Amino acid sequence: MGNEAIALGAIKAGVRVVCGYPGTPSTEVLETVAKNNDGSIYVEWSVNEKTAMEVAAGAAYSGARTMVTMKQVGLNVASDPLMSLAYIGVKGGMVLVVADDPGPLSSQTEQDTRHFAKFSNLPVLDPSTPEEAYAMIQAAFALSEKVGLPVILRPTTRVCHACASIDVDDNREEHIPSGFEKDSRWVIFPRLSYKKHIEIEKLQTVLAETFSESPFNRVSGKGSLGIAGSGIAWAYAQDVIRDLDLDVKTFKVGTPYPFPEKLAESFLEGLEAVLVLEELDPVIEEALLEIAGKNGLKVTISGKKDGTTPYAGEYSYELVRKAIAEFTGRSDPEVPETTIPPLPARPPVLCAGCPHRASFYAVKKAMKGRKAVFTGDIGCYTLGNAKPLNMVDTCLCMGASVSVAQGIKRVEPDTRLFAFIGDSTFFHTGIPGVINAVYNQTDIVLVVLDNSTTAMTGHQPHPGTGRTMMGSVSEKIDIAGLLKSIGVKWVRKINPFDQKAAISAVKEASEVKGVSAIIFEAPCIALIKKPEAFSVDSDKCRACGLCIREIGCPSMFLIDDGKVQIEPSTCYACGLCGSICPFGAIGGMNHEN
Amino acid sequence: MKTDVLIAGVGGQGQVLASRLIGAAAILEGYAVRTGETIGMSQRGGSVVSHVRIGGESLAATVPFGQADLLIGFELCEAVRNLKRLSKKGRLIVNTQRINPVTVSLGMEQYDAGAMEETLKRAAQDAIFLDGYSLAREAGSVKAVNVVLLGTAVGAGYLPLSRESFLQAIRDILPQKLHDLNFAAFDKGYELGNRAVEDKTAQIK
Questions:
Q1: Which residues of A touch B108 (CB under 8 A)?
Q2: pTM value surpassing 0.90
Q3: Domain definitions of chain A by residue range
Q4: Which first-to-last residue range defines the signal peptide (chain A) (predicted)?
Q5: CATH class name, domain B3-204
Q6: Do B46 and A548 touch (CB under 8 A)?
Q7: What residues contact residue A256 under an 8 Å CB cut-off, 6+ apart?
Q8: Which of A19, A66, A410, B169 is deepest in the core (most CB within 10 A)?
Q9: Shortest CB distance from A345 goes to which of B35, B101, B105?
């Protein structure tokens, strides 16, 4: 997998400290380092991306090679240290692996990290394949140490989650950290910033020249038509150029910033028209337009800005082939027609037995007929928005459930506000919002969905789990205790599968002045041994369908006579359906069938 | 020989492991291989598809429309959903198991299994339909349906890789306590695949 290749490349490059926060499509990078750790690398899932970057920065100040991993929106959280680090710089090589998600397949935004590279004046490498990612991560460490700046590696989903055959070199480079040396260079002050700003801007020109010689940027072929590209779009373009047997000049850009200007000039020389193929924003396209303008070249550059290729969504072989066929005046080979009948959509859902379903259902029942708004957050429980639960009214970004609820309450004082947040997200950025609500005396109900893990990204430990990535046991941070200590007076811990207790607690919490908090505690089903499934007594089932309509459990199906059946291989015997059935037709192991 | 394979199913059915096993078996036989997965939110019961490209020169892991040599459908509807990637000469292996999306259970959408099967039968000359769920249960666990289907593909000669390479891949990738279950599941599928092709050959004669 591309992410594994990045991890193995970092280990080979002698990385000493690796920090990150899980997020698709970046998660497996850090996990692979941990799996292959001989004990000489310090690996942690940090509480959030900002913390991760700062921990890594401290290690890099001390001369260690460090890597930070996150998804694109994670860099928004870490953008504060990022911007200043570009001024302060590092001693040990520091590489930020920030995975972008065109599509988006699993994200809130389709933002392009190459802009962050430009914005912060940090070099960025953009791999097209797992093999290239393996080479680039190693080069990134060397470059970072050479220029004394963090370097960004920006793979995208199709590179992160693609596997390829790679020869891995087990010879690890030895980089012994020299230790932290006290120096005024580590303390950012306006005067230092001014001086550093001048230096960084000068460095951009030097880097652009260095990158013109980089093996990651290549010009080949000849003719009057040119195709430039990067990332996975470049891989598709290479496949199309081969499949259509085209003779064109090509420019593969592996370092979109600082842009390899000299090499670009040699690419543009003699060209009449250029097609740029890159996912997300027109970074290469704009750079080429700028160079063409600066040099007064008469060359047509098409891409996103003239509507040839789209800004939004991920690219495909077909999209790239169509664009290249049109650009070169070839006919686009037809895709054979396949007529298929209408198919039901299959969106992701909360798993059968997921405790979040019970938590949402309890709040829904308790607030039935009352005016209430449910703010949601980022995690598996965002899926609570789907029918029939319909329990997520807002979702913005990590931690926002808690603060958005306060704003709505300020405008709608008569509405009851419930902020749903998962345990990992609570630690990530939820806590400041709670402090804000307590201190400003805002009436909201905080609902912490504590399933003892970071579920959506594949069950990473967090401060509430008692485990660390170094394999050690750590004292759990107690969410209830933490809430009490910051002044939340009404705090209850409840098992959401005890629906009666859960519903009555929700009602009580909604009447409390100020912040009240319910912590729904039940582990993610992936953490427990699967118990014997529930089953339906078909004699008692009256085919009313209430169980399915109320909770939409994916293990429950209607059979021909309208009665309900439970798929035994996926049912976790949570019992929620049993508590809903008015006829006592659903039950567990000792249930008569 | 270049072989493009597509594995389509419902998140949680073990597609990622299946594509890993094909990849590992292909590497054991000296092929270059690329795979691409759906990882993330869709893994929670959504539509997922894995691409496996054995041999060939492509840099991208995604199999283009109309180019898959083999489509392994882990679930009926998901097999149909990905038919557009199957080549006109492509082959099909379909687990006839039906997994209703929640939208169907709620009566918001229809699941027309009859029309889906018809479409699949028209789409490929070489097609094997099997009840992989029952075979996996016979082998010891319904979770092993992924390996049953790989066994069918190899037994039918739809994958250019040997049974031995797959058994080795299972040994290399899975923990030891799961070896016997998966060997049994693979062989259940393998025998069925073998028989299906023999029957067909007999019919033609």
A1: 387
A2: yes
A3: 2-212, 215-328, 355-527, 535-587
A4: none
A5: alpha beta
A6: no
A7: A114, A117, A124, A126, A230, A278, A283, A284, A287
A8: A66
A9: B101
